[in-house]
Amino acid sequence: MKTLVTTLAIVVSSYAVAEPEMYAPSGTGVNYDFRIGLQAFDDRGRDAGRVEYTQYLSSGSSTETNWVVDRDAYDPDALKLHLSILRNTPVNKDFRLAIRAADNGGRGGYGYWQYTPWASEGGGWSGFALDSDGYDPDAFKIRIETRNWQEYVSLRDFRIGLKVADDRGREQGSATFTPWASHGGGWTSLATDNDSYDFDGFAVSLEVRKY
Q: Which residues contact 171 (CB under 8 A, 6 or more apart)?
């Protein structure tokens, strides 16, 4: 009888230890190194400006694009975002996104930075980034900010969302999202306001899945 109880205890103990191995270790940040590209368009999305990229997340504590403009650096009609994934390069950092708009081709009329919540906080939408007068900005930036991972749970996956709006953010166009990081990232669809003409501001979303 004593031998049987001992054997059962060993079996139960072994099962209890093995079960947590089904899950990823807790308390680590994103396991993808990535960068973000931003592109502006005129003529309702038919006339593309140059894509500008952040550096990769692993490059430092804060990395941002140059000013993003359409080809004439004046009143674009649409934006797109690109999530570029560098696979198999764990960085284990918490991060959030920051955006800004400006006038005069990025040389003045600077608006305030707007921020998403941190990935460890569950992500979410930023406020709308406007230029200083809240009307027809010319230039845009996006930045990745990092810190030590704050949660016991781990980040499993994420994607980036984008929307633009008119009337200082009150008339919002449809949101569009990149593919998930686990699917290799990629481009959003074209983001426009309701009339696809001279939007006033933009917002971004950090959508996360956690273990």
A: 165, 193, 194
